[in-house]
Design brief:
The chain is an alpha/beta fold. The chain folds into two domains: 251 residues, 3-Layer(aba) Sandwich (Aminopeptidase); 115 residues, 2-Layer Sandwich (Alpha-Beta Plaits). Helix content is 30%, strand content 23%. It has a six-stranded mixed β-sheet with strand order 1-2-6-3-7-15, sandwiched between helices. The radius of gyration is 23 Å and the shape is elongated. The model has no long low-confidence stretch (mean pLDDT 96). The structure holds zinc ion.
Length: 383
């Protein structure tokens, strides 16, 4: 029987390797060390491991590790990166796992480096028996920033299975749907001039007034046409988040920029909705001389939904005792579904601690999570 380091040792090793991902290049880090530790452990267990460096960034990689042959089976997936951290607000070293009151503190303990030792412990039970379908562990890069790792997985069609669990912290509740997330920037370019005569320029803030009116009309229409009672906020949302414009009260404002957050429900087409929004806004500014440009910060995260009655959703609900639900955060769910897998988000730890200083994983989540994964592996992978 293959040996694996103890849970605490694996968690400490993974948390000890900084792997912050960020769209700000100065704080963005490689995830290769985390991937290499996972690959070593999985090699030791007899998995067939494949490192997948991202084509445009060799400092980032995904890992695909497979045990057993044949079609179908189960993927246990997670991301290896963390969000940036505010060191001043941490009461312990974020890169050192510190235990207090049965809580394991450290950056990424719950979101979501802690899922990997849980998954590895779960799979060890099945290594000396014949499998009818493979178990695959997938570890991705850049989930917290661009989702480049999961996008590459989906584009390269490199993973195949019937079912996938994404081990994000859900407090062991099976999550079958979440909204999509898109950050959009609207830039209006007018022309400056002396404020005393409006005809000397073209005021971008005046145009922004029209743009904001149209945004709010569009938002109202989206909410009237799309509702899903499974969500706590059951309509698509649009938040007008920040705006920068102009430089002086006595100059005609030549430039205005507004950033919005758009969250669409499952079933809504992200691309088509943004296209429609863009053409409506172009129509509004066409009335004056301003030009409008609408861009996305990074490619939007599409909404995600698996049938609530799906076998994996129901199996996880039965073994966890928690009813299937929806969440307000985004995951790699859409990309795994594009690979043809019925995907559910389910993992130890609470999202309340994710992206927070003094992030922790409660120790009492570990054993139940491991046991539930064993039930699922038994169901889909053993003869
Ligand atoms: Zn996460």
């Amino acid at each position: 029987m293959a040996t694996l380091p103890k849970f605490d040792e694996m968690l400490a090793t993974l948390v000890g390797e900084p792997s912050v991902s960020s769209t700000t290049p100065s704080i963005d880090r490689s995830n290769l060390r985390v991937i290499e530790h996972l690959a070593n452990w999985l090699d030791g267990l007899g998995f067939n491991t494949q490192l997948m460096p991202l084509p445009d960034n060799p400092q980032k990689a995904n890992l695909i590790a497979r045990f057993g042959d044949g079609e179908g089976g189960l993927v246990l997936a997670g991301h290896t990166d963390t969000v940036p951290y505010d060191e001043k607000k941490w009461q312990s070293d974020p890169f050192k796992v510190t235990e207090a009151n049965d809580k394991l503190y450290g950056l990424g303990t719950c979101d979501m480096k802690g899922f990997f030792p849980v998954a590895l412990q779960a799979v060890t039970t099945f290594l000396d028996q014949p499998l009818k379908a493979p178990i695959t562990i997938v570890a991705t890069s850049d989930e917290e920033s661009s989702m480049a790792g999961a996008r590459y997985l989906a584009e390269s069609q490199s993973v195949q299975a019937d079912y996938a669990i994404i081990g994000e912290p859900t407090g062991l509740q099976p999550i079958y749907a979440h909204k999509g997330i898109a950050f959009l920037t609207i830039r209006l370019q007018g022309a400056s001039g002396h404020s005393s005569n409006p005809d000397l320029g073209c005021n971008a803030l005046d145009s922004m007034y029209d743009v904001m009116g149209e945004l709010i009309r569009f938002r109202t229409e989206l909410a009237e046409q799309n509702q899903n009672p499974a969500f706590e906020v059951h309509i698509p949302t649009m938040n007008l988040g920040c705006m920068h414009a102009g430089d002086s009260p006595n100059r005609i404002c030549s430039h205005a920029e507004l950033q919005i957050d758009l969250r669409l429900l499952p079933g809504m087409d992200t691309h088509a909705t943004i296209e429609m929004l863009s053409s409506r806004l172009q129509g509004v500014v066409a009335r004056c001389e301003t030009t409008l440009e609408l861009t996305t910060h990074y490619p939007p995260i599409p909404p995600f939904e698996t049938d609530k009655d799906n076998d994996l959703v129901q199996t996880l609900a039965k073994h966890s005792g928690n009813p299937p639900g929806t969440v307000a955060f985004g995951t790699e769910g859409h990309f795994l579904q594009r690979l043809g897998m019925d995907t559910v988000v389910f993992g130890p730890g609470s999202i309340d601690q994710a992206h927070q200083p003094n992030e922790f994983l409660a120790r009492d989540q570990i054993e139940p999570a491991t046991e539930i994964l064993r039930h699922v592996i038994r169901r889909y992978c053993t003869a």
